[in-house]
Amino acid sequence: MIKKLFRPFEEVSKSRRMMIMLVWVVLVIGYWIFSSFGSKNLFPTPAQVWSGLKSLYAEGLVVHIASSLGLCLQAAAISLVISLIVVYLSPLPALRPVAVFLSRLRYLPLTGITFYLSILVSGARNMQVWVLVVFMSLYFITSLLAVLKDIPEEEIDHARSLKCSRWEILWEVVIKGRLDYVLDVLRQNLAIIWMMLVTVESILVAAGGLGVLIKNSDKFANHGRIVALQIIILLIGLALDWVLQTTRKGLFRYSTY
Questions:
Q1: pLDDT tens-digit profile of 149-201?
Q2: In a domain, 35, yes or no
Q3: Does the predicted TM-score (pTM) go above 0.70?
Q4: Domain of 157: which CATH number?
Q5: Alpha carbons 95 and 86: distance in angstroms, whole number
Q6: CA distances from 114 to 126, 130, 155, 191, 203 (A)
Q7: Number of independent structural domains in the chain
């Protein structure tokens, strides 16, 4: 039975996958507790992390979480709308180079983007939002262009056989037919936005957020608080991922993607 778990491409049941996951979680937590004994520790002890979590809650952790979630969701919504418009117009030969060019800009460093945005955007909170919007739109466009490229030619031919016009093919095959892929692209790229919050929230410390809490904790070398915040960020990120995955499966039951 155990040998099957170490064979490539072995099919295992969902309950067994959960059991394997639980075993790994127990091993990691066990190693963390075991390594906390002694005078020198590579990681903060569970007691230090718990103490850091309590102090964070006393300082308004819930408010900071709400600020970070609001920033993340606002930037994700705007960037997704912009990206969808660009990508859905990319089948037009005249506009295709625009989408490809924007996709290539994802290699630009964040510093180069913020310099020009500071000239165009007023207000630190707007600056935070639009840094994330510009940064994430480039990745959304790249992922969505890949979705369009992978559309089977048979689907387009089938639409043509039904006497659909070119604009009807765009609507039925590309837009409506790939909405489930759009949600999955959002789910994958939302992780990048959530990861970028620590950097972006440092633009406006007064607005708060999890990134500000990490920055302040790092300034005073409070590693217990830092690990506690990283655990919180990870759990919220996993929750967002689960919500989007569940939504996609609920709305598009036919989807096998």
A1: 888 888 888 888 888 888 998 898 889 888 889 988 998 888 888 888 877 87
A2: no
A3: yes
A4: 1.10.3720.10
A5: 8
A6: 12, 9, 42, 21, 10
A7: 1
